[in-house]
Amino acid sequence: MVLAEIGRIREASAIYRSLGPIADWRPTPHATLFTFAFGINLAITLGASEDVATLRGRLASYRGHHVVSGVCSIAYFGPVELWLGVAAGHLDLLDDAVADLEHAAKACAVSGAAGFHAEAQYELANALALRAGPGDLPRARSLVTEAARQTEALGMPPIAAKAARLTKQLDQQSSTMLTPREREVAELVAQGLTNREIAARLYLSERTAENHVQHILTKLDLRNRSQIATWISSRR
């Protein structure tokens, strides 16, 4: 893992492959969960998708547990569902990824694992962005905004950088969903203007302004004007 993190992928891969087939791994009991969780992360880095699937299957029997290692559990690596969700996301099993990562975020919040909670929120936002179903993108935007805030406060630059990239990607996606006129109307909604005031500002009929607002709500899967304002504010 250390070699992979500093970019020495060839050396990391050689050591990883020297461990033999994953199905034959027999880690000691106190290292089992760490071995499978770290294995998932390393296999993803090395692009070994078949290994990710195998490790996910082996780790799945420990759902509801947390990844700990050592005498008196001296090392902690988050809830099992966090790494199951990461693995599922890599394998494009996005519904499974969202379900596991939702569980992981809740487990971290309950246990007070602030750093892993921020990471789980980022991973959940990423899975939702990839799935892009009804309501997924606005929810992803909200989650990644909170993850960015938490990682900045906690001093987690690697996850903060990932959150910043995802935020930029979501901005690009949501911007292309709206027409230039709809983006203009959204800005005016964020300034607190009524439909009548928007119509006067843009030389439209009030009915046309109302239609634009409704189209914005529908496209972004938002419920009200205040959420449009929040969306504009988060993009800034």
Reported by name, the CATH topology of the largest domain is Serine Threonine Protein Phosphatase 5, Tetratricopeptide repeat
Q: Using only CA atoms, what is the Rg?
A: 22 Å
Indicate the structural class: mainly alpha
Strand content: under 5%
Named at the architecture level, the CATH assignment of the largest domain is Alpha Horseshoe
Within CATH, the superfamily of the largest domain carries the name Tetratricopeptide repeat domain
Summarize the structure.
The chain has helices at residues 2-5, 9-18, 32-45, 49-59, 80-90, 94-111, 114-131, 136-154, 157-177, 180-190, 195-202, 206-220, 225-235; strands at residues 66-69, 75-79.
Features:
236 residues, Serine Threonine Protein Phosphatase 5, Tetratricopeptide repeat, Arc Repressor Mutant, subunit A, 2 domains, two-stranded antiparallel ribbon, 72% helix
Would you spell out the secondary-structure blueprint of this structure?
Layout: H1 2-5, H2 9-18, H3 32-45, H4 49-59, E1 66-69, E2 75-79, H5 80-90, H6 94-111, H7 114-131, H8 136-154, H9 157-177, H10 180-190, H11 195-202, H12 206-220, H13 225-235
Antiparallel strand pairs: 1-2
Description:
With 236 residues, this protein is mainly alpha-helical. It folds into 2 domains: 2-177, Serine Threonine Protein Phosphatase 5, Tetratricopeptide repeat, CATH 1.25.40.10; 180-235, Winged helix-like DNA-binding domain superfamily/Winged helix DNA-binding domain (Arc Repressor Mutant, subunit A), CATH 1.10.10.10. 72% of the residues lie in helices and 4% in strands. It has helices at 2-5, 9-18, 32-45, 49-59, 80-90, 94-111, 114-131, 136-154, 157-177, 180-190, 195-202, 206-220, 225-235; strands spanning 66-69, 75-79. It has a two-stranded antiparallel sheet with strand order 1-2. Helix 6 (94-111) packs antiparallel against helix 7 (114-131) and helix 11 (195-202) crosses helix 12. The chain starts with a helix and ends with a helix.
